[in-house]
Structure formats: C-alpha cells, structure tokens
Amino acid sequence: MIFELPEVEILRRDLDRDLPGRRIKTAEATSMKTLGRYRNRKAFSDQLLDAKILAVSRRGLMLLLGLDTGSTLVLGLGSSGSLRRTANREAMDGATELVITFTQHGQLRLLDTDGTAEAFVVANDVLDQELESLVGSGTDPLDEPISWTDFGRALLSRPGKLKTLLTDDSFIVGIGDLYADEILFDAGLRFDRTSTTLSSQEIRRLHRAVVGKLHDAIRYRGTSLPDRPFFDPAGEEGGFSEHLEVWGRHGASSSRSRQPIQRVKFGGGWTYYCETQV
Question: CA Rg, the chain, in Å?
C-alpha cells in the first residue's frame, strides 16, 4: 500500500468540492493500462460521454464519482496513481493514462507511472458487489466514527500483534506501515505488543491515536516522501512529512527521549519505533 487513507480522503474532499455539477465532454485513455476490465478504450469512454458528476465519495481507498446516468466511475490509484485538475491546454505529463474533459473548467487527469491504477464504470445497483473484493471489510475511521469501547471490543476479539492488526484491511481500512508506526508511537505502544494484553487505558490511547493521527495527516494535506510523493489535485505537495515522529527517522533522537529512533524488519517491511513504547 502506498497511498493510505488520509491521502485518498484529501483527494475525495477536494474533488467533491470541485466536480459535482460538471458535465463530461470527452473521456480519453492513452492506453489500456488502467482499463483491465475492458476490451478496448471506446467501451470505457462511451459510458462517460455527456454524463454529469453528482458527487464524489470514497469506499476504502477507491474514489467513486457518481454520475447522473445511474452509474459510478470508480478510480483506484494503486501504488503509483495520482489525479490532477488541469487546464485543457496544459502540457501532458508522460505518465497520463486518462483524460476527462469537462464542458467547462478544464480536465481531470489520471497519472500512473507503474500501471497499478484502474478505472471502470459500474451500474449503481451492482456497485456494492463490484467493490466487495476491492475494499476491506474493516472499520473506516474517517467515514464511520467508532467509539473507543466498540474499537476495544473489536481489538480484543482479534488476538495479534498491534501493527499487524492496524495494517489489516479487515480490521481498519486504509492504514499502511507509515501511519501505523506514527499511531503506535503516539499511543506509546510497541508494534509487536499483543492486542489482548492491552489495558482499558491503553485501548483508549490507541483509539485516540488512530483518530488523531489520521485527522492530523489530513490537516497537513497528506504525507509526501521522496520514494512516495503525494500531490493534491492542484499539484500541491503534502506537508505531513515535516510532522512525522518516527517513520524514516531511524538514528534521530526521539521527541520523547534522547534515545535514537529504532528500525527493525517486521512483516516484510521496516518498522520504526521509540524505546519508550511498551
């Protein structure tokens, strides 16, 4: 997972302020990379011609553009996709895979460097069925707030290491390594702590950290790193990287102590933590 829940939520909010009411004039795919469900590009673009966007919503990490045709345009960014709002005459980036031109006010472009993004149109009456295999079944803390007591019950019913649970889409949707490490540092809990050993106070701290860190990341417009750049639809880079406490900071002094931030391999990737976490 590259882009996590805060980044996709930022895109949703920005696009939902901008796109509803706009009518699609043309939709052009530059290749078939993002159109794996189609035999040809015309089969995709014909479904969008003259459609008006009603709203932009999100299901997990999938963006949903509701149309007045009774269908929804589903956009998944994968590990390398990004969205840009541009003028019609703006120079085309070489990574551009999809260009949606509106009857007024420019274009929406989907860029994808590695070919992991996808786009497809689906009828609303089968939307849930189509998304079932693409979206995790866990709670979405930005879309459906959960109380700390319900969070605690779910946590205690799932014995396992805390970071493994936080990054499991069947428990919480859309949290990857970066935000899991930041959440656990904020909560003062080790990544390999077992969920069933937490006290009520620790569960409260973890719940507060999940909600707080995700909202902080949105407030600072997402995390953009050299190996994981993130830009909003206007092309502005996310600023939460300046507020990271542990991720990518191994060897630097912890803000809680003079001890250096540690880095270890866990679950196939790097985990960053402070010795003050218990």
Answer: 20
Has this prediction a pTM greater than 0.85? yes
pLDDT of residue 3: 80
Predicted confidence band at 79 (pLDDT cuts at 50, 70, 90)? confident
SS3 state at 55: strand
Give residue 162's pLDDT band: very low, low, confident or very high (50, 70, 90).
Answer: very high
In this predicted structure, the answer to whether residue 2 has a pLDDT above a threshold of 80 is no
Which element (helix H / strand E) includes 26? strand 24-29
CATH fold of 5-131, please? Answer: N-terminal domain of MutM-like DNA repair proteins (3.20.190)
DSSP annotation of 174 reads T
Per-residue burial over 247-263, b if 16 or more Cβ lie within 10 Å, else e, is bbbeeeebeeeeeebeb
DSSP letter (8 states) at residue 240: G
CB count, 10 Å around CB of 160? Answer: 14
What fold, for 148-273? Helicase, Ruva Protein; domain 3 (1.10.8)
